[in-house]
Amino acid sequence: MHKNNLYAIVFKSMELSDVLKKIKSNEISLEEAERQLRITNFELLSDIARVDVHRAKRTGIPEAIIADCKTCDEVASIARVLLKNEGRAIVTRVKDEDYKELKSLAKEFGAKIRLEKRAKIIVIGEPVGKNGGKVGVISAGTADIPVAEEAKVIAEEMGCSVTSIYDVGGEAALLSMLQSCSVLAVVNIDAGFVAGAFAARIASLASKNREKNGQG
Fold it and tell me: Which domain holds residue 175?
């Protein structure tokens, strides 16, 4: 068994399309369909994690691995599950030693790997296509750049084009710029992933709405 295979439970589950077909043909009950959907969404890795393998399909926001509280082997084990199910993996707050382990995993899957040093993010898999969404990432000072870069990379990984402006000159200057924004999200200063995902989700939906109304 591969050293990164730490699977504890294997479920016999169905894809969403299979579940819907079986409901339509009355092959399964609504209760069974609900059970299958709960099973299909997650894969358990011993006592490490409960990996949401279909989060991107279900919510539009990808599952990400937070590496700073995990060993290299644990990070690689979770990344293996995401690569197997989704064909890509995003690892945030990576440590120096994580890259070597994940590089070997990427080679095993024949996948591309990219390290974003300032954001401390590793992405394994093909680049995503652009969806027309546009996001701006602004920080008041240089100390915020690592978190801002995390937000930037996540928004890009969700298909958005990102413009970043750093060290705009203090809180007053930042607030004056923010007043011109039509939508604002307030997040924890250390939550770059949440900020990037929230902004990208709004931008993506706005882009789809423009296309729908012929305003692209």
Answer: 134-205
Dihedral of CA atoms 114, 119, 121, 122 in degrees, nearest 10, equals 10
List of E strands, 17-131: 42-45, 49-52, 64-66, 89-92, 113-116, 121-124
Q: For residue 8, give the amino acid letter.
A: A
Residue 212 domain-assigned (yes or no): no
pTM higher than 0.70 for the full model?
yes
Regarding whether 102 and 30 lie in a shared domain, the answer is: yes
**Structural domains in the chain (count):** 2
The Cα–Cα gap between 157 and 144 comes to: 20
Packing angle between helix 192-212 and helix 145-157, nearest 10 degrees?
40
pLDDT tens sequence across 53-101: 667 777 778 889 999 989 999 999 999 988 988 889 999 999 999 999 9
